[in-house]
Amino acid sequence: MNRYVFFLLFELVCVISAQQQNIKQMAAETLSELKRLFADQKGWTEVQNFDGIKLEERFEPKYQRIIRRLTAEQPDVPVARVVSVLLYKPEEQQKFHKSIDFFNVVKAEQPDVPVARVVSVLLYKPEEQQKFHKSIDFFNVVKKIDNRIRITHGQITPKTSTGGLLETRDDVTLQAWDYDANTGSFYVGYQSVENNIPIPQGAKRVHSDPTGFRITRLNGGKGTHLMWLANIDVRVPENIPPQVFEIFARANMIEYVNNLFQYIRSSRT
User: Fold this and answer.
1) What are the phi and psi torsion angles at 24 (to 5°)?
2) What is the mean pLDDT of residues 121-135?
3) CA gap 185, 210 in Å, rounded
């Protein structure tokens, strides 16, 4: 190998290393911002509370949009299983959410849903999401940075809760996760990234600012306490009144979480 080729290869390695460092820095910033949004308890208005799932909204000045927070508790759904579906096997989402071509604060408490199972679905087996989220058209891991960070490309065509009014959407996203030993919480964060991946024909690309999940054991037991914060510019079509879209957006979040928990319960091994 001559010196010219050696220096070219060395420069390429340096560029790749710098890119990965930039991605890791972005992942850290995404998770930090997600934790800030979860921790900020001011200004939330409850808009729906039904069957153990609470949905809240507030205007976030930093992003100049309404963000949503869903909370649910499931005593029989393991945290590990939820994380697996959301992060490591996102394709499973199509099995329970019919609208996923791609991946969307809600609070949910499920005493019968183990944390381990939730973590498994969100982190380790994200492909499972296609099994319960039928709106997912596809979900691809574009690049794996390390065991906690990756770049993904997904597409969603809403098929149920939006009544078919929203067209196909895609997003290229940085996904990262972290575990807070002090609180026993898993954080799964998402953030749109610049890329050269072409937009699929007929799709509209959305933009996600720091968005994601916080998953903890329910009262220290086997169940799951899940919070989902949605902070996304979904590019609502001009022909859809904002009030109508808000109804669809709320319904979609609740439907997704209900389907996730039902899928985990039905797929126990």
Assistant:
1) -65, -40
2) 72
3) 17
pLDDT tier, 189 (very low <50, low <70, confident <90, very high otherwise): very high
- pTM surpassing 0.90? no
Q: What is the CATH number of the domain that holds 80?
A: 3.30.530.20
Q: What is the DSSP letter of 146?
A: S
pLDDT in tens, 52-104: 789 999 999 998 888 999 998 888 877 777 767 776 666 666 666 554 443 33
Nearest to 173 by CA among 188, 152, 157: 152
Number of domains in the chain: 1
Mean pLDDT (the chain) is 78
Burial of 251 (0-12, 13-18, 19+ CB in 10 A): middle
Q: What are phi and psi of 166, to 5 degrees?
A: -95, 135
Average pLDDT of 34-49? 91
| Segments forming the whole domain that contains residue 58 | 3-266
Whole-angstrom distance, CA of residue 203 vs CA of residue 201: 6
Q: Which residues pair with 191 in a beta bridge?
A: 174
Q: Are 245 and 236 in contact (CB under 8 A)?
A: yes
| Residue 141 CB coordination number (10 Å) | 16
Name the helix (H) or strand (E) containing 53. Answer: strand 53-60
Amino acid at 100: I
Q: Please give the single-letter amino acid code of residue 261.
A: F
Judged against a pLDDT cut of 70, whether residue 123 lies above it is answered with no
**Number of other CB atoms surrounding residue 144 within 10 Å:** 11
d(CA 20, CA 217): 32
Query: Hey, which residues does 185 pair with through a beta bridge?
Result: 180, 216
